[in-house]
Write a structure and sequence with these properties.
191 residues; alpha/beta; Rossmann fold; 5-stranded parallel sheet; 4-stranded antiparallel sheet; 9 strands; 23% strand
Length: 191
């Protein structure tokens, strides 16, 4: 299980919030009192109007927010398509990691668009290695967009509530929790 190094208050908006909270080992806070928000977006169900209202509130309060795409095993819609939908319905999102699939179509790895390292979960445990040349070619355009967005927004734009990373969470697998916690650990705590 990933480890949260600080004691930030986290709001999770959307279905499966308790399941995600359990997987990353946190208690869920109310949106208004949270330091950071996670908006779960189902690849099956999309974004419901009640969650749109909470998104607007989090923008008014400048709460740093993650968009976490779930239900990727049971949907015909993939991660990249759902991030495009999130961008249209919420605000522009950035994708620091893209999902790579095994031959049978199941999510098997993530590629870090900043480092071009492959986080391979296909054998059950995490293996980090350099991406293959064909993976680098496959993600070149996405990487360019990501790097440009980070440069334009600034390094601290996520913690300032101005940039919205979209991450994949494949329930019941190790894909997602570590990356979510990585972002939660960027939020400064008031001490």
């Amino acid at each position: 299980m990933p480890h949260l190094i600080n004691s930030v208050k986290v709001a999770i908006v959307g279905g499966k919030s308790q399941l995600l909270a359990s997987e990353i080992g946190i208690e869920v806070s109310d949106l208004e009192s949270s330091d950071v928000a996670i908006f779960l977006v189902s690849a099956n169900d999309g974004i419901v109007s009640a969650d749109l209202e909470k998104w607007r509130l989090s923008r008014e309060l400048y709460i740093p927010s993650l968009v976490v795409i779930c239900d990727l095993l049971t949907s015909e819609i993939d991660f990249e398509d759902m991030t495009a939908i999130a961008t249209k319905m919420l605000d522009p999102v950035v994708t620091p990691y893209l999902v790579l699939h095994s031959d049978d179509g199941r999510p098997a790895a993530l590629i870090n668009l900043e480092t071009l390292k492959l986080l391979d979960y296909s054998e059950g445990s995490l293996v980090i290695r350099d991406a293959d040349p064909e993976h680098i070619d496959l993600v070149a355009e996405f990487r360019e967009e990501y790097v440009e967005a980070i440069e334009d927004a600034g390094e601290d734009s996520f913690t300032a509530g101005l940039l919205f990373p979209a991450l994949a969470w494949v329930e019941g697998t190790p894909i997602g929790p570590d990356q979510i916690v990585e972002y939660l650990n960027q939020i400064p705590t008031l001490s």
